């Protein structure tokens, strides 16, 4: 935990407040927690808070955490809330779901995010281990191959799409990111350069 806090202190000194806020949300696993709850209202509230952070940072490029926390405290003491935009749910909206929550459902287009080895593959032990067939492993030890479970889960995610599926992972970050072996096993797939969309989102 101390390592994480030290890193965040470094971020607060060297990054814009928007970038700092985004990194803390992701590295603290708070975003994963919200997505796992499958709670659209909680996700909407987090988005509204992030929108407010971006608006404040546009007005003050030197915005710091201390000022932001003081602002939230003043708002709380004066019973002032960030306006919550009503959610609209319908046929033409984006639905955020975990793979488990999406079982049995189908969508025209599916985006599977964080398709990196770090996200989808278990930490492996020594590389000299011999991989036993799953059925033999179950008979011998009563256990099953976790990698095969994850592979099946990845297959579930892929097959939710009726028309197109988009796989994303980041090559940047604190540590170099490698795409998951499950993606590599798919063979040739069309690659899209999304950097223009990222820059456009940052400007907003």
Description:
The chain has 204 residues and is mainly alpha-helical. It has helices at 2-14, 17-27, 30-37, 40-59, 65-77, 99-102, 117-120, 134-141, 146-158, 181-184, 195-203, and strands spanning 107-112, 161-167. It folds into 2 domains: 1-78; 94-123 and 150-203, Rossmann fold (3-Layer(aba) Sandwich). Helix 2 (17-27) runs antiparallel to helix 4. It is globular and about 55 Å long.
Residue windows where pLDDT falls under 50 for at least 5 positions: 123-139
- Tally of separate helices: 11
Report helical residue fraction.
40-55%
Briefly note the structural class of the backbone.
mainly alpha
Q: Radius of gyration from the CA trace?
A: 21 Å
Largest sheet data: 2 strands, parallel
What is the CA-CA span between the terminal residues? 33 Å
The level-1 CATH class of the largest domain: Alpha Beta
CATH superfamily of the largest domain: P-loop containing nucleotide triphosphate hydrolases
**Beta-strand content estimate:** 5-15%
The tally of domains stands at 2
Q: What is the element string, with H for helices and E for strands? A: HHHHHHEHHHEHH
Query: What is the name of the CATH topology of the largest domain?
Result: Rossmann fold
Overall pLDDT level? 77
Strand segment tally: 2
CATH architectural arrangement of the largest domain: 3-Layer(aba) Sandwich
Sheet with most strands: strand arrangement:
1-2
Q: Report the principal-axis shape.
A: globular
């Amino acid at each position: 935990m101390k390592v994480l806090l030290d890193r965040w202190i470094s971020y607060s000194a060297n990054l814009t407040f928007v970038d700092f806020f985004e990194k803390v949300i992701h590295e603290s696993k708070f975003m994963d927690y919200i997505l796992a709850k499958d709670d659209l209202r909680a996700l909407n509230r987090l988005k509204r808070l992030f929108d407010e952070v971006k608006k404040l940072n546009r007005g003050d490029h030197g915005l710091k955490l201390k000022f932001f926390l003081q602002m939230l405290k003043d708002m709380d003491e004066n019973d002032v809330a960030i306006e919550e935009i009503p959610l609209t749910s319908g046929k033409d909206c984006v639905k955020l779901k975990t793979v488990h929550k999406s079982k049995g459902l189908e969508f025209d287009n599916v985006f599977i995010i964080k398709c990196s080895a770090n996200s989808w593959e278990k930490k492996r032990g020594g590389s000299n281990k011999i991989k036993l067939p799953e059925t033999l492993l179950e008979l011998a030890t009563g256990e099953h191959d976790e990698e095969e479970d994850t592979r099946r889960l990845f297959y579930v995610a892929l097959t939710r799409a009726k028309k197109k599926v988009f796989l994303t992972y980041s090559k940047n970050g604190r540590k170099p990111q490698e795409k998951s072996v499950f993606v590599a096993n798919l063979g040739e797939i069309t690659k899209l350069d999304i950097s223009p969309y990222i820059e456009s989102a940052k400007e907003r």
